Amino acid sequence: MFYCREEELRIMNRRYDKGRFECIIIYGRRRVGKTALINEFCKGKKTIYFSALNASSQENLEELSKAVYLCKAPEGFHAPVYGSYADVLDVITEMAKKERLIFVIDEYPYLAKAEKSISSRLQHMIDHVWQNTGMYLILCGSSMSFMEYQVLGYESPLYGRRTAQFKIQALTYREITAFYPELAPEDQALLYGVTGGIPHYMNKLEAESGLDEALIENLFQPSGYLFEEPENLLKQELREPAIYNSVISAIAGGASRANEISTKVGLESGICAKYLRVLLELGILKKETPVTEKPGKKTIYVIDDNFFRFWYRFVQRNMSAINAGRIRQIYEPAIKRFYSDYMGLVFEKMCREYLLRYARELPILLSDVGQWWGTDRRTRTEIQIDIVGTPAEGGGYLIGSCKYKNERIGTDELDLLRRYAEVFRKDGKFYYYIFSKGGFTQPLIDLSKQGEVTLLTLEDIYQA
Predict the structure, then answer these.
(1) Which pLDDT value is given to residue 390?
(2) Could you tell me if 354 and 327 lie in one domain?
(3) What pLDDT sits at residue 3?
(4) Which of 358, 454, 344, 349 is nearest to 398 (CA)?
(5) Measured distance CA(38)–CA(166) in Å, rounded
(6) Which of 106, 133, 167 is the last residue of a domain?
(7) Is residue 174 one of the residues assigned to a domain?
(8) Of 202, 199, 200, which is closest to residue 191 (Cα–Cα)?
(9) Domain count, the chain
(10) CATH number of domain containing 331
(11) Contact 138/103 with Cβ under 8 angstroms?
């Protein structure tokens, strides 16, 4: 099934209907749904679909030849191999002169690595030949750094040739409800906490019959499709997966600053920084700095990919029991009972997403939403504010907390937020928000009715 991505499809189809030359760049991390989007767009349209191989130039030329022949003669099975890339591009050009033609090169970085001249060849075709044809070129890739620097970048031969670009992001916590609409909000939240909004993972979980059983069968079993997914991705993308695995494990274990990570992994800081940079480019990690402050000494590294974070928290730590076939015995006491604790950071992410994307009639126009942490000089203690929303214009700040617990939250949480707000900034107007899975006490609800604070439950942030 194909879910979401309606806006991308609308734009791609609108450009297709104009009949003019197009060069569409599509990129994003693996499993995010790029190929599914392209396949949906190409339905019922004349298409040459070539998925490049991580192989030699000649092997890729043979596969491209097959893709061209399959488009020209779908019933044929003896595809000729063209003598060169120039020859096969000439054949594709003749087809595009006669009718609207979609030419997809999926996993373009593989082809560019194998055939160094391909970007220059495509540049020549775009500049001198394809502008007056029905060519609809799509270049797609999972290597985000390659696509951003060597396709879209200033020094690329293809710079300035694209007519549109799409960086395909993971789905939001609301969008994923389309996959298993029968699940209750708490299970929907956990599904987001496990998959991070990656469509491929949600499909492979097969959670129609319940999330716990789906996780046990597909993630916590050695035979499950998702059991080795993080390790396989690291092996597929990186030359030294064992070192990257150690870096991620260090962060999952609590190390957050560069020096802490390098010490725990046993690498010199300069060398460790290179591994951190690659993981940042892959979207597995991200750097966080207190909102309103510039990157510096307070910058920390966190696992941004929910699936990686869940896997390193629950699968890797219980590997011996899982391999021994004891997952059903340990699932409740060693895994499920810690879901609420794990979901704390996920819930914060969901609440920020709610404020930026879905909330209506906010008291300020938001420019950014993030965390803030610092030192309370009066008490000499470190404090952290889960949510700080900064204004796009005017004054005022949105100050919030997120509690993924079953108990109801009382007025003491509002008092704490007010004190933290004074540490964050001595002046300014503050608007208080409290998000709670378990609801709120009546005294806090009364204060909300008086306009002192806005209260939102897990169910509230799922409502339209």
Answers:
(1) 95
(2) no
(3) 80
(4) 454
(5) 11
(6) 167
(7) no
(8) 202
(9) 3
(10) 1.10.10.10
(11) yes
Predicted local confidence at residue 8, as pLDDT: 97
Question: Which pLDDT belongs to residue 464?
Answer: 65
Looking at the fold, whether 258 and 361 belong to one and the same domain comes out as no
pLDDT at 74: 66
Contact between 108 and 72 under an 8 Å Cβ cutoff? The reply is: no
Q: Which of 167, 194, 210 is the last residue of a domain?
A: 167
Domain that holds residue 70: 6-167
Is position 173 within any domain?
no
Low-confidence ranges of the chain (pLDDT < 70): 1, 74-77, 464
Rounded to whole angstroms, the Cα distance separating 330 from 318 reads 9
Length of the chain (residues): 464
Strand order across the beta sheet in which 22-27 lies: 47-51, 101-106, 135-141, 22-27, 164-167
**Tokens, residue 54:** 């991580």
Contact 402, 387 (CB under 8 A): yes
Measuring CA to CA, which residue among 348, 414, 416, 352 is closest to residue 379? 416
Dihedral (CA of 425, 429, 435, 440) sign? positive
In a domain, 200, yes or no: yes
d(CA 202, CA 374): 37
Q: How far apart are CA 276 and CA 262, in angstroms?
A: 10
Q: What is the 3-state secondary structure (H, E, C) of the chain?
A: CCCCCHHHHHHHHHHHHHCCCEEEEEECCCCCCHHHHHHHHHCCCCEEEEECCCCCHHHHHHHHHHHHHHHHCCCCCCCCCCCCHHHHHHHHHHHHHHCCEEEEEECHHHHHHHCCCHHHHHHHHHHHCHHHCCEEEEEEECCHHHHHHHHCCCCCCCCCCCCEEEECCCCCCCHHHHCCCCCCHHHHHHHHHHHCCCHHHHHHHCHHHCHHHHHHHHCCCCCCCCCCHHHHHHHHHCCCHHHHHHHHHHHHCCCCCHHHHHHHHCCCHHHHHHHHHHHHHCCCEEEECCCCCCCCCCCEEEECCHHHHHHHHHHHHHHHHHHCCCHHHHHHHHHHHHHHHHHHHHHHHHHHHHHHHHCCCCCCCEEEEEEEEEEECCCCEEEEEEEEEEECCCCCEEEEEEECCCCCECHHHHHHHHHHHHHHCCCCCEEEEEEECCCECHHHHHHHHCCCCEEEEHHHHHCC
The answer to whether residues 353 and 443 belong to one domain is yes
